[in-house]
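Protocol step 4 of 6: record predicted structures for both targets in the notebook before any analysis. Target 1:
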Amino acid sequence: MKFSMFGDKVSQKSGINILMDDLGQAMSVNRDMLMLGGGNPAHIPAVQKIFRESMIKVMESGRAFEECVGNYDTPQGNPLYIEELAALLNRLYGWNITAKNIALTNGSQSAFFLLFNMFSGRYSDGSFRKILLPLTPEYIGYADAGLSSEDIFTSIRPEITFLGDNMFKYSIDFDRLVVDDHIGAICVSRPTNPTGNVVSDTEIEKLMVLSKKHGIPLIIDNAYGTPFPNIIFTDAKPRWDENVIMCMSLSKLGLPGVRTGIIIACEEIISAVSQMNAVINLAPGSLGATLTEQIVRTGEIIDISRDLIRPYYQGKAERAVALFKEKLHGLDFHIHKPEGAIFLWIWFRGIKIDSDTLYGRLKKRGVLIVPGHYFFPGLADEWQHRHECIRVTYSQGDDTVSRGIEIIADEVRKAY
């Protein structure tokens, strides 16, 4: 069977396909696997109770259920939900946005597919533009999102600061950051998947200045950030203006199955996203908006994120870091300071095998992690560092995480 160039591109082996296949197998089929690799959020009992009660109300209301499953929303998404979300963000931050500044998509992955292909690839003037990732490593799901057969990303190595006690932190190297006519947009995740890094307010300000100067958007992937799900353990002020595209999601709130992404942008971009939604999906799914409409309207979504979700993950992060330090004591390892998200990024400096080989050995022992080399889209130069890192999630049950860390530490010691 012969595929088109697009068919060849999207059907080949990719990091995100391997990640999601491992995740699906571990969560649904081979439940004996210790899932420390995927990005599935934890099933937090108190949060699940709220969503379960919301689902019961939808089912019992009759009209809400019929409209949710029996009617299409608009290509922009559920109008009532969008109005309530705009009102909530204006109350919180004084952004002065309207419903014309928000569109829903079928998950964040869908949102970034649309946005990246809006601002990268071949332009009508014949130029070819790329997405600049100012901080790498970056999210594995970006790497294969471009329609073009050419690479649509460019990135640079980060600055590395050693913090002591086997901890380190990445930051943007602005001295090496080049924005020119070959860049169509700048994109950064905050908190960053895979590292748990939070780009500082100062760094965001500098990126905003750069993007405005060059007339290109700054895309901020806020899937783990504030105000919801608020899986962020440091101070970080959310920023938005007409030149910023803020992307949010209901997935890490605890609803990955409803596939609801949120784009906040200027009216021109929201209009374009709505048009593309109509072509690709007819309309976004309705379930996520229906389930969370009330907690957005009342602001309870902020309380849930602040009082239930954030402390749950912060506690798990602290326990996982402490256990890794105990089990890896004496080795040349470094953990990126966990400032948010649901992952630990661990650097085994000078290890004798690459992270892909380590992934294979751990999988044979029933532990799934993600090898680090997938998280460097657009980095042109070879860098040994990317083969010495792994991403581990601490979102699963404490027993699963503890047993997984024991096996990882044992296998890493053998590799050293």
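Target 2:
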Amino acid sequence: MKKLVVAWVVTALAATGAAVAVLGLLGNGLTGTDSHVLSREDVREALATATTRAAVTAGATPSQTAQQGKLIRSAGGTVIASCDGDLVTLRSWSPAQGYSVDEVGRGPAREAKVEFEPEEGEELELKITCVGGAPVSRVGG
């Protein structure tokens, strides 16, 4: 009986040791957290890099901003539109609750439009054009 207990303890220790070794090789240790701690210099360098990236993104050229699109809200729903010169393109559209999309003219064109149709009542037609390189909307009839 004593031999069985000793064999069981040796097996348990071997299995535990193997598990700890495998977890160590995976790099997460026994607790699942990374043991790498950043120094103050590492933190400063990471923050400087992040600040530089944010400044570059904030200083984007107007054509890059135009390609991303402008969010336009209306009672019938929202539209994201962008301009390339005087041509407008609808990137996406989403009806508001209680509305559905009836018709879309996505462009590129001098005028794009989305018709939002309510469950009851008159439809809302959103017309979008480019003025000064930026999307401008108006509700049409």
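Step 5 preliminary note on target 2. The chain has two domains: 2-58, 69-140. The chain has three helices and seven strands.
Proceed to step 6 after PI sign-off.
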